[in-house]
Amino acid sequence: MSVDQYEAMADAEILTEQDQVELINGFLVTKTTKKPAHSVAARAVAEALARLAPGGYFVTREDPIRIGGVSEPDPGAAVVRGRSRDFARRHPDSAQVALVVEVADSSLSLDRTEKLRIYASGEIPVYWIVNLVDGRLEVYAQPEAGTYQVVRTLDPTEAVTVVVDGRELGVVAVADLLP
Question: Phi first, then psi: what are they for 56, rounded to 5°?
Fold first, then answer.
């Protein structure tokens, strides 16, 4: 199905917030129940990004992003160009997203494959995976032809530079993003 069909189902209340699903490549994919560690990490990421977000950007937490007409994932966090109120009638699309973050435990395989391809094909400049399985941060940058050209894995002893639209905004300790 398309993003428009998916959103029409939500508007008609065929799908509600209780239907824990997201649209991935035209298919409804069930989201897993969040464990406490996942929630802690998602809040930590959103708080860290909100502290560094410059004027003209805002940070979302588990809000949908429209990508390519057939995907509408709900990433753990995203840095979006504009103001939150600019999106009262429509979710942001990938062209308005400067950085996207997934918090991954049981979803790690999906986040490294399908979601990585979706975010790269949507040309989102930077994609982070807060990898709760291995206790690391995976940083993907420079999307091209449906994949990311630069991949870095950071341990809890390291720090990540937050880059939004080519601007370095500051650094965050990887340990601060983990539960």
Answer: 90, 5
User: Both tokens of residue 138?
Assistant: 């995976």
C-beta separation of 116 from 148 below 8 A: yes
Task: Give the HSE-up count for residue 165: Cα atoms under 13 Å, Cβ half-sphere.
Answer: 14
Structure tokens at 153: 């894995």
Chain-centroid distance, C-alpha 39: 14
Q: What is the pLDDT of residues 12-36, one digit of tens each?
A: 999 998 899 999 999 999 988 889 9
CA separation for the pair 87, 89 (Å, rounded): 5
Which pTM does this prediction carry?
A: 0.95
- Looking at 86-178, list the stretches that DSSP marks H as alpha helix, in order from N- to C-terminal side: 108-112, 114-121
Helix intervals (H) in the chain: 3-11, 36-52, 108-112, 114-121
Q: Taking residues 56-67, what's their average pLDDT?
A: 96
H/E stretch holding 172 reads strand 167-173
Angstrom distance (rounded) from CA 42 to CA 101: 9
